[in-house]
Amino acid sequence: MTRIVEKNPRKLVKHGKHIFMWWNINTQQVLYSFFPGLEKSHLKQLPFIGKKSVPASLRPDFWKPFCTATFPTPYQGLIAYRKLREFRRLHETAWDETQPELLEQSKKSRIRALMRQKANSIADLAEVLRLQGEQAGWMAKNREEREVQSREWLEKKWAEVEELAEKGKTGEINKLQLEIKRLEDSLTRKTTEKEKERVTKAVRLHNHRLKKLQWALKMVYKRNALEKTLASGTTTPTETSIVAAEKAAENASTETLQTTSTSESPRSNLKNPITTSLLPRHLSAPLPVPFDLSSVTLEWADLYDAEYAKAWPEAVVHDVMGTLRRNPPVPNAERIAFPAYEEEVLAIKATEEEKLAREKEEEAEKKVEEEKGRVGRVMEKVKKIGNPFKLRALH
């Protein structure tokens, strides 16, 4: 069999958020997967280091899951997966430095030793998590520095835009429009090519300046419109509100744009997409979320396997998978409990029998109470109307 997966296993989890680790019970080789299953393509992870070092096919009775690592973000999981692959490549290629005693063994024993990667992979996972804990600090620092740089850039850039908008409000737009019209009229009266070229260049420069002033007015108008949406209690503006602000700015007349206040909204609000649209590429490119080890969970088929690592980060949570079938359980799904011992089974059975007997007693008591109630109702009726048999005897 070349495929040991459930139906559509890739749809069960998000790519990169989980790493499923498998081991071969005969050779202790290790495979990594992003979904709770294995395919024949996963065998490409195993290098050829000798005869029968790479299985020809996947056998479900040989490959068993032993650990599932769950990460808070797919990016953190993908980085961990890459590091695990790199560390294993070092184990397989730099063994003469890390394990010099293998040089004294026979070729067959050396191949077998290099194929045993289960303990190494667990130690590698602990080291990867330790490195991610160190990276979390400077990743958070980079985000803080990026925020400071972005705010400084926006303050400077929006000051220039507001200055242009103020010039557009003071009548420069009207002056430019009149000047452009005058130059276009004079263009028909020019006779030489040199004069026409000079006038055409002047018209082009005035048009560029006019468009720049109109753009500045529209940007300020859109920024203010979206700031009102954020001030109403919306934490992040929706795409609808952004499109509405852009359409309003496009349809607004020049007189309306010229009445827009340039100091109404903050210049460096990073939650306003209109404000941040002026950021250059090196500041607008998103930074990854800092790694978080407190949200990392390791689920073990055998919890004692974790002792292969010298130490684990304190924030990492260790758990057990529960009862395993062919594939590991999907993280955060309902667990299958381990089979109970004989003493537990007897105790559970005794508890169920006691509960059943108590229910029968309660049901019998309830029937007796109902019977007493029925008899009591009949006696009350007899007292009210008297004994009908006694009345018949008197007649």
Automatic annotation (TrEMBL):
GO terms for cellular component: mitochondrion; ribonucleoprotein complex; ribosome. Residues 253-265 have a biased composition (Low complexity). It is found in: Mitochondrion. Keywords: Coiled coil, Mitochondrion, Ribonucleoprotein, Ribosomal protein, Transcription, Transcription regulation. Residues 166-193, 347-381 form a coiled coil. It comes from the Eukaryota. InterPro entries: Ribosomal_mL67 (IPR024629). Residues 248-271 are annotated as: Disordered. The keyword Mitochondrion applies. It holds the Pfam family Mhr1. One of its GO terms (molecular function) is single-stranded DNA binding. Belongs to the mitochondrion-specific ribosomal protein mL67 family. This is Large ribosomal subunit protein mL67.
